[in-house]
Each structure stands twice: as C-alpha cells, then as structure tokens.
Design goal:
By secondary structure, the chain is α/β, with parallel strands linked by helices. The strands form two sheets. An eight-stranded mixed β-sheet has the order 3-2-1-4-7-5-8-6, with helices on both faces. It has a two-stranded antiparallel ribbon with strand order 9-10. Helix 6 runs antiparallel to helix 7, helix 6 runs parallel beside helix 8 and helix 7 runs antiparallel to helix 8. The chain starts with 6 loop residues before the first strand and ends in an 8-residue tail after the last helix.
C-alpha cells in the first residue's frame, strides 16, 4: 500500500542485482513511494516488498522509456506525489542527499520554470549549474513539469531517451539544472574503461547511432545536428579502433545508421 509520499521514485529493472534494489528500498522506502517497473526479468524477485513499494510487472522488455512511462502514468493517475525521482537499477542515493536535492529544487522553483534538478554522479562541487541535457538516473522532476513536457518517447527504446526529453523541455521554456552539491552512485552499464572512457556493450551502439541520427534529422532538433555528428564520429573512432569486438561494433553501428535513414524505431530484432 503506497503512502502518497511527496516523492515517487521510479526504478526500471531488467535482470538486475536485486541486492542494490533492496538497498534503495531500505534506504528510501520509509519516506518515499517506490515504483519498480520491471521489464520481464527472468530473476524477478517476488520477495521485493515494502509498505511503500509497488512492483509493475511488464511481460517482456519494453525498453526503458516505456517502462518509465508506465510508472509515470500510475503516479499521475493514482498518486498525490508532487515529484518523481528516477534511479537506474544499478544506482543508489542516500535519503539525506535526496532530501537535500528536493530542498534545492523547491528553492530554484521560486525563480525558474524548472524541468528537473539532477544529482551529480561525479565529484562534489558547491554549486548548481544550468544544463541542456542530463541523464535520467538522478533526475528529480516536478510532476507538473512532466504533465506539460510530456512522457518519454517509447519508440527510442533505450539511449537518447533522457536527452530527447531534456531537449523537448528546453524548447517548451523549461530550465534544467544539475545540483553538484548532491551526489549519488551511478554506473553506465559498462564493461570496463578504455583510455579512461566507459565502454558500452556493442548492441548499445545500434541505439546510440540510430536514435541520435533520427533525432538530429527532425525539424525540432536540426540545430543540434552538427555538434552531434561530431560526437558520433568520435564515438565511431573510439569503438572501432580502441575497443574489443570491433567487427560486432561496426555491424551494430551500420544497422543503426541504416534504420535511422529508414526511420525504423523500436526494439532491435537480434
């Protein structure tokens, strides 16, 4: 039974380490409502319970965007929570830091139309900075902002979902901030680091290239095209020269470029 807390937390899961999920529940569940939107995990732990915990069981992997949307709709329709906080399945934040993030957001809202205030996954700094885009894990968003900006684009499936939402928020006049005084533990689903850069799984390159190319070729985001084409070029060089499984990476990049041209979105058929 959820308590309609001020903050509703959304965690999308897909075959996660449930110890981390339980750690977040133990830390945050007493003060916040927690919505676990599970994408058909084979290791779904039916013992994940708590008075403020709701497990939304999706029958198969719907992608992060749609899983987030399912939880957001539940919150909008059935909850009185005023804020939504996103956490990845391998991320963790202390209750003290989440409360500090909420306090700072309320202060900023007095002077700004705020899309979100995000915690900092890096090193602590004593300042709050304006951003054009942010990763979803660590975002604290007013429910009213989501109602005006809209849901995540589910046809992107994964990768660039959070950035697209941020770009859309900015176009609608909202301001995005990162609270560098508030930190949390976050991983990027990486295998390892090469040249001090995170290495993502080869299949993720399909979504990175497809979704980025699709978005920057739309009318809404065409002004970002030059910058992001440079980013993709650097991504291509890094992955094909310095990372393992080079042939596989090139194959996924090629498929992503091809499907972007065809405007074919959704889940990749392996």
């Amino acid at each position: 039974m959820l308590a309609n807390s001020e903050i509703a937390i959304i965690i999308v899961t897909y075959n996660p380490d449930w110890k981390i999920i339980k750690k977040n529940i133990n830390e945050l569940g007493g003060d916040c409502d927690i919505y676990i939107s599970d994408n058909g995990s084979k290791n779904l732990n039916n013992k994940i319970k708590g008075k403020n915990v709701s497990v939304l069981e999706n029958k198969y992997n719907l992608g992060i965007a749609e899983a987030q949307n399912i939880a957001i709709k539940q919150i909008k329709e059935k909850s009185k929570s005023e804020y939504i906080f996103f956490l990845d399945q391998d991320s963790f934040i202390t209750l003290a830091n989440l409360k500090l993030l909420l306090r700072d957001l309320k202060r900023i809202q007095k002077k700004n139309l705020v899309g979100c205030l995000a915690a900092n996954p890096g090193y602590l700094k004593n300042k709050i900075t304006q951003k054009r885009e942010l990763i979803s894990s660590g975002m604290l968003i007013p429910v009213d902002s989501i109602k005006k900006i809209g849901l995540m684009k589910s046809n992107l499936f994964i990768d660039m979902v959070d950035y697209e939402w941020c770009w859309r928020a900015t176009q609608k006049g909202f301001t995005l901030f990162e609270d560098e005084r508030v930190t949390f533990k976050h991983q990027i689903g990486a295998e390892k680091k090469v040249l001090n850069k995170q290495v993502i799984a080869p299949f993720r390159l399909y979504y990175v290239f497809r979704n980025t190319l699709y978005l920057v070729n739309t009318v809404e985001y065409k002004s970002l095209k030059k910058e992001w084409m440079v980013r993709l070029y650097k991504q291509f060089i890094f992955n094909t020269l310095f990372c393992s499984e080079k042939k596989k990476r090139i194959s996924f990049i090629y498929r992503g470029i091809k499907d972007a041209k065809r405007k074919k979105l959704g889940k990749l058929s392996l």
